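lol ok so funny story. i was supposed to be doing the assay writeup but got distracted and ended up predicting the structure for this chain instead. priorities right. anyway since i did it might as well share w the group, maybe its usefull for someone
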Amino acid sequence: MAVTGRFRVYDVLYGFIELSKDEARLIDTSVFQRLRRIKQLSLANLVYPGAEHTRFAHSLGVYWLASKVVSRLVESGFVNEDEAALFRIAALLHDIGHLPYSHAIEFYYHSKFREQINDGFKLHEKLGHAMILLCDELREVIVSLGYDPKEVVALLTGTHRDIKLTSLISSDLDVDRLDYLPRDAHHTGVAYGLIDRERILDTLTILDDGRVAVDEKGVQAVESFYVARLHMYQAVYYHKTISGYELYLAKIYEELAEYDPEISFLASPQGLEKAIKDSTISLIDDYWLYSKMLQVLRDANAPNRVKKRIQNFLSRRGPKAIYNVSLFTHNPRRTEDVKQVVDMLIDCNVDADSILVLETTIKFLGTEDEIVYVRTRTGDIVPITEASQLISSLPRYYHVERVYVEREYADKALKCIKKSNA
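and the output, tada:
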């Protein structure tokens, strides 16, 4: 809907989101429209049927929150209009690099190309930066609006010469999290992600050194935000069943890469970069990967093993978790437990190729540069951990160790573990 030179899009959380004609041009690029066809929560709809929302809706939501925050900063003279426009562009494009089924396929790339990718950024972030710099259609729109694509990437990577706005895109309390927590809670139906967003936005500010801060009267709202993150990671983002299917899809993708020439080409960082340069990345979405799986099922020459896995995946007969440790801790946790479980299963003649492993640690309170600060009534600036007894007592990490096996081996695996514990 166009209104006096601006466009309005109705959002489930915010009502009408307004965009300028310039911002609408960015949204109309094929690489941004691709986000309509990538689910925000990957395979969460297998557990929460309502989780059908997309990266497109989330990106618009982040843009809208960024617009509200930066408008206040312009009014207060903290940033100028050009800086505000650049920030809105960066917020709009922050998730443009996501691959099909979001984080599920990233499992494959991060495990296979760990050394190439492990430089502090997730794969979808690196791909997003590459799209902004290398995708002709998107880059030309940014340049035509009077902005340098390198400046947009610098804001997203935290390397921009003006540090005032970078932390609002990537920090403990950023516009990305302020959107996805309530959005994901709404679509999954869980109540854990509900936060007092308006109170946070009303009290949010940026210190001269670029750190995010809230006025003291916003501390309770920030407390609810941190608690919501803890609950959502446990109940949704690392739900046992959802994680199992994401690992299973990554396994299927790996096998498709050995069989399908197109996926084989894309199954490396170099292949993805070429797809970005020639704009074929705009076709790589959830539907593309789904169609690849259907093609394999119809192909009489396709390997039976990958066919069986695809059939299991589509019929919701995914892997079973036979070892599961998920806990909140105050310190990082490193154990050899998962390796021991895997070795035990192999000794019990469980097919090693049927075993899937998830080991990860999520950090909930950031570094000194990432954590939220509080401006007290006396004007002092203190970390949120000093201003809030509740937040100071929260766990710093969420640690997950899981071992899954394909269903045909589940009984054997469980008996093996039970025998070892006897």
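The chain has a mean pLDDT of 91. The two ends are 66 Å apart (CA to CA).
back to the writeup now i swear
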